């Protein structure tokens, strides 16, 4: 019965037109010596070398976080105010500086 309530909550968010929330996921412990399944989950989340990534708050991401919850720290972010910026290539930056 809990899955029905969760499903209803997700569909309500979609119907309301809200953007999914964002999560900042930071690796706080190493994957060395951990089972391969945990290391693969860290890679799937985009985590390497104890850095942070920003991911959308989806059931799939939450499931991955649950599997490696002892290795990561999670912070909820505002909807669009803290969205990650698009990376700029160095070539464009240099051309813009020369012009």
Description:
The protein is of the alpha+beta class. The protein has one domain: Ribosomal protein L30/L7 (Ribosomal Protein L30, Chain: A). 43% of the residues lie in helices and 17% in strands. It contains four helices and three strands; from the N terminus they run αβαβαβα. A three-stranded antiparallel beta sheet has the order 2-1-3, with no helix packed on it. 13% of the residues are buried.
Please summarize what this structure is:
With 99 residues, the protein is an alpha+beta fold.
Summarize this structure as a short list of keywords or feature phrases.
Ribosomal Protein L30, Chain: A, globular, 99 residues, alpha+beta, 17% strand
Q: What is the fold's blueprint, element by element?
A:
Blueprint (H helix, E strand, L loop, with lengths): L1 H15 L5 E6 L8 H10 L6 E5 L2 H9 L4 E6 L12 H9 L1
Antiparallel strand pairs: 1-2, 1-3
Strand content: 15-25%
CATH class wording: Alpha Beta
Oligomer: single chain
Rg over C-alpha atoms, rounded to the nearest angstrom: 18 Å
The count of strands amounts to 3
């Amino acid at each position: 019965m809990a899955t029905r309530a969760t499903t209803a909550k997700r569909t309500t968010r979609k119907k309301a037109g809200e953007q999914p929330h964002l999560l900042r996921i930071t690796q706080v412990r190493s994957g060395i010596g951990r089972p391969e399944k945990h290391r693969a989950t860290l890679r799937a989340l985009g985590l390497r070398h104890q850095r942070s990534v920003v991911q959308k708050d989806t059931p799939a991401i939450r499931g991955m976080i649950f599997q490696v919850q002892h290795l990561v720290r999670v912070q909820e972010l505002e909807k669009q105010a803290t969205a990650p910026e698009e990376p700029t290539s160095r070539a464009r930056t240099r051309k813009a500086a020369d012009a």
